[in-house]
Every structure is written in structure tokens, then in C-alpha cells.
Amino acid sequence: MNNLQDDVKILIYTRQPDNEYTESLSNSIHFAYCQGDDDFKPLNENYGVLFALGTIDEKGVIHEKGLKNPYLFRTAEGSFGIVAVRVDASGNDDAESKGQILLWTSEDLITFHDCDLVKLHEDLFVKEAACEFNAADEVYELYWEDNKGNFYVNRLNKSMSIDSISAAEAANAYEFQHPVVNLSNIRQGNILSVDSIRGNKIKANWTPIYNTEVRVPDSVNITSPEELELVKAEAFYSDGSTSEKQVKWDYTGMNFSTPGTYTVKGKAVQETYSFPLARGYADPVILPWNNKYYYIATNDNVNDIGIYVREADTISELFVPGFKEAVILDVDEEKGFIQTFWAPEFHVIGDDLFILFAASGKEWGPQCHMMKLKKDGDIMEAEDWNAPVRVKKSDGTYLAQDGITLDMTYFKADGTSCIIWSYRKNIGTPLDTGSMLYIATIDEENPTMLTSEPVLLSRPLFGWENIQGTINNEGPYPLVTDDMVYITYSGGGACGYTYALGLLKIPRGRDFLNVNEWEKASTPVLSYYSIPGVYGPGHNSFFRDYNGNTMIMYHGEEEIVSFGTRCSAMHRVHFNKKGVPVFNMSSERDLDPKLCDLTIKVVVQ
């Protein structure tokens, strides 16, 4: 088949809400894919890809938005455009959006550029819209229908400058495409055909990566079993990426003291961590330190009072009966540590080990603190930690004079040390700002005081962040690679199944305090659709184990409920063919059990 033939079809649609897939999720753009005569298959596991941004009123309150009737079209340059009607949080006509539609452009249907709202009319609500490029006149024609069944057309110049939009003109009825497809419980948009090369790239990006093959060398020359243990397997994945795996070799019939050639069987293995690892432990973090592992988390089992730490020689030993656990910070009424001991994190800042956490006094209102380990101190001994210090701004005032601060994290890149935290005002009132992410720089020598003004980095404007009664951007955590700083964060129902991980990223070498340098993904990188049996994955952390694997820890729940038991979970972070981290790699997709049996020819010398 000619690879340039348009034999791949892309369907754009929204979903019908059901008992668990809410309006906030369903009123977003979804994509499905089919090739040839195959049935359509949802991309991104049938979870939304593009979400409308909410608006912020003059009082700082967020108003959630959704979208309906998306339409996918070709641009003049052969790339893609999308128009959709913006609606309110319940999917109804939105007064703020009267006469306007959303517009995005995309080179590849993988990354998207938000062109903002296009104003078609002053006084009429838009029911549905479509866009086509008129090559003869070199303009885009936007056909739309109002709520009374009248049709209009506006024109946009070739550069798609929204300021170039013409006035609406009455038009003949436009026949919107709503093809019948095999997918159920969706609100069909239109279908666009693309060539197989482009279509397969779209499919690959929005389909989970999975293990396709495991290999070892055909033969090896060795002199001892220790040398054979060093032989690793290479796992190959659907995107062309690879990872190294340990092999458990069967030495039956071998004699390493006698030269000869042996056929040896082995099994590729990777340590996996069943869910739940620890029930009632949220916001989990593991620290590799001095050849041991330390585990710290919010302890829901004791009503989030106290900071508990576990110590073990291996990761698995942290979660088996008889684990070693110590309370290193308990209730202290005199110092004002009484409740909401939240989200403790280990961080090495300069030459010292700190725990960053939030706590409240008698009056509820968590605030960010840091606690430093004394020189040569024992992590498990409470007396080896200095007294916690509340974080202050550069002028010496506390980080927040009103509202709450929590979930502080730290990273250093390109010689710059930064902290990121969550801040929220007027919680539980009509003026609730929702939790917001802020960033600032610090000095390693005095990390409890900012060296810059706090900068607003992100607010929960997407529907998946603003859902089930919570308005969250919280739980930030860094993953620094050679070329990028990634910040995962959490949004959605903090104690329910809709909790999910979002992603912010910025190239290395940029100004971390310039919010315009950061890119925020529209769709979560880990949701309750990502890992079978884990619902509400959120508030994560990263660490590198002693075998060199980058691991992601997070909490999730065992049921689809609005408020459940938060439990610790963990799996490996994969890096795709482009070196980009993949956060939704389940253990079965990481290493397929059906591919693990291996054979190698061993020459004993």
C-alpha cells in the first residue's frame, strides 16, 4: 500500500456523561482512529485530550468551562485546525461565550496551539460551527448555526489572525457531518482522513506504549557465574524505545570449572510493586540514602497527625509486615504543630537533607515548613532533626498572610534552586480561588527564605482539574532530565477517583520564573484510566532506585468512589524513543510475561 494514501481516519467527538465519567470530563475533545475498514478505536484510552480553559472573574474566582460540537479541519498549510463551541460547566449555553467559538491549530494532533475565542456575533449563541479553507479566495469560511436554526458565515484570513474575522452574513443551511460509527455513548463530530504515516504517529502518541520483544545476546564468553549475572536483557517497545532488564538464569547442568559450551535458559525479570503498597498512606516519597531506602507519606490512618518514616535495605522491605517505622515529628502544641501534617518530602538542598511539609496549629490552616537533619544525624531519630522553620518571603514575612500553603517541593537546575508550592485563599467560600501553583528561587544556604517574589505558575482552569467539588493544582514534584525540567502536579478530586496528574515542562536553560516559558499539557499524564485497578492516581514523587530505574510513587484508591482510602502505589517511569518520560507504564506493558523466557549460548572459558 502507498504510505501516502489517505487510508487513516480520525474522528473527533465528545462523550456522553455517565455515572463516573462526569460532565467536566465528557465535555472535552476526544479522538478515535481507524485504518482501512477497521472499526474506530478511541485514542488516549477514551479520555479527553483537549479541554476548554475556565475563566477568572474580577474577584479571582474560576468559572469552569466545557465544550461541545468540535469540528476538525485542514489548514491551508496541510496541518490541522479545530473549532468548538464553549459551554458552561454543565454543558449549557455560556453567557460569557455568546457569539464566540474556540479555535486551536495543530501540526500533528499531538501538540496544540490555543488561538483563544473567535467572535462571530454579538447577540446570538452558537449552536455548532464548521470551518473550511477556501483556496480560491484564500480565506477560512466559518459556517455556523444559532439556537433558532439560522445559518451564518464569517471569514478569517489565511494567517488565522482572530482579529481579521469578518462580520456574520446570512448563509444557506450547512450540513454538519455527524457520521454513525461503532463507538457508543459519544457525541459524534466529523471525520478527517490522513495519510498512514501521519495517522500512525497520531495513533502511537495517544496509545499506551507496550513491550513487544525481549532479547539477550546469542552467545557470551564467561569464566564465572558472576559474569553471567551481569548479562542483561533488552526490552523493546512499540515506539522503538528500549530498556534494560535483569535476567534470572537457570544454572542447572552447568560447571563453571570446566570449559565448554552450554545452552542456558533464563527469565527476564523486573521487580514490581503490587497495589496497594500501604493503605491509608498518601503523598508518598521514597529517598535512597546511604545504601538504604526511606519512605515518608501523609498518614491518613492517624488522621494526618505526625510525620512517620520507614527504613529498609530494599524497597520491598518498606512494605512488608514488621517494617521499621519511627515518628520523627509529633504533636507539639507549644510550637504549633497540632494537625494536618501534610505531604512530607525529602529533599537534598545544598549539602543538607530537609523534609518539606505543611502543618497547622489549633486553628486549621496548613502552612509550609522545612526541617533539616543535623550533621551526621540519623533520619529515624527525632532528636537528630532541627526544629521546623516556617518558610518566609524575601521581606521576612510569612509565605502567606492569608489562605493556606502546602505541598512544597524543590529542584535545582542550571545552577538555580527553586521551590514550588500550592496556595489557596477563601477555601470553602464563594470566593474560593482554588489551589494555585507558585514558584520562587531560594538560596541553598538559607532555603527557608525566598530570594525572589513568588510567581503564579498554574491555576486549575481545565475541566479535569476542576471537578467533583475540588479546584486543584497541588502536589507538584520535579523530574529533571538533560534537556527539560518536568513538573508533575495533581488536579481533580483529591480524595476521589478523578484525581489525576498533570504536567508542566520547561527546557533547560530558560528562565524558570517566566511563566510564559512553561508549557502546560491539556490532558493528564496519569488518570484513573491509566493503570488497571488504580483509581484517582495523584500527588506523586520520583526517585532513582539503586538499579538505576526512575520510579514514580503516587497514591490511588481501590474503588471508583468520591472519597476513598488513599493508598501508596509505584511503578517504573519509561523514557520513550525521544527521551520523553512516560508516566503510565503499567507493569504488564513494561515487561510482557509472555516474552520473558530466554535462551543464550554460554561459552565457559
Structure write-up:
There is one protein chain. By secondary structure, the protein is mainly β. The chain has two domains: 8-205, no CATH class; 281-565, Glycosyl hydrolase domain, family 43 (Tachylectin-2, Chain A), CATH 2.115.10.20. The protein is built from four helices and 45 strands. The strands form twelve sheets. Strands 15-17-18-19-45-16 form a six-stranded mixed beta sheet. The protein starts with 7 loop residues before the first strand and ends with a strand.
Number of strands: 45
* Euclidean distance between termini CA atoms: 51 Å
Q: Enumerate the spans where pLDDT stays under 50 for 5 or more consecutive residues.
A: none
Q: By CATH's scheme, which homologous superfamily of the largest domain applies? A: Glycosyl hydrolase domain, family 43
Alpha-beta content class: mainly beta
The CATH architecture of the largest domain can be given as 5 Propeller
Q: In the CATH hierarchy, what is the class of the largest domain?
A: Mainly Beta
Give average pLDDT, whole number. Answer: 96
Rough outline: globular
| CATH topology heading of the largest domain | Tachylectin-2, Chain A
User: What count of domains describes the coordinates?
Assistant: 2
Keywords: Glycosidase, Hydrolase, Signal
InterPro entries: Big_4, Glyco_hydro_43, Glyco_hydro_beta-prop_sf
Pfam family, one: Big_4
Protein name: GH43 family beta-xylosidase
